[in-house]
User: Fold this.
Amino acid sequence: MSCFGRPAIVRVALILCAAGVSIPAFAEDPKSAALAKELVQALTAAKLEAIATADPANAGVFVAAMYIPGTQLLVVSAKYSAPTLLVDRITAKDYQAVYVDLQSASIRGSKIFVMDQGADGLAAKPSGDQAADSFDEGDKSVSFDGEWKKAKISEADYTKSFASADERYTKMLSMLVAQLKKPKSGS
Assistant:
């Protein structure tokens, strides 16, 4: 009986281990995935590579994105010291200039920058040979490469950091999608 029982126990243990290894805490689809895809489709349909808008909930804060077709979506949010200049650029649909201004001349410490490799939403771990997504806020940068041990943090902290970044990124994408959906005004 002991010979029969041992292989069964080993099989159950292997199944449990495999389940634990193959279904990490961050395996569910990120919230940003659907919005990133929607933004990319809307940019492509409008024949745009950039979009920008003011953050309606935070005066002086703007969000802009640069889409590199088939490669990545670069999204920045920051406070800007001359908000009327950016409002004028947004009104003129000079979105790329807004993106550049937020990247280069934003108020120190206010910038959030997301590199969405694949332009498909944040991923807690890259798939295949794709580069890792990253989320920078102020002087803190997180690369979502799935290697929390290398970053000297716990898996729980990595997962929490990813969930927070995905939530923030989702809000940024929502504002940009809303900007693209605004009715076109006659010029």
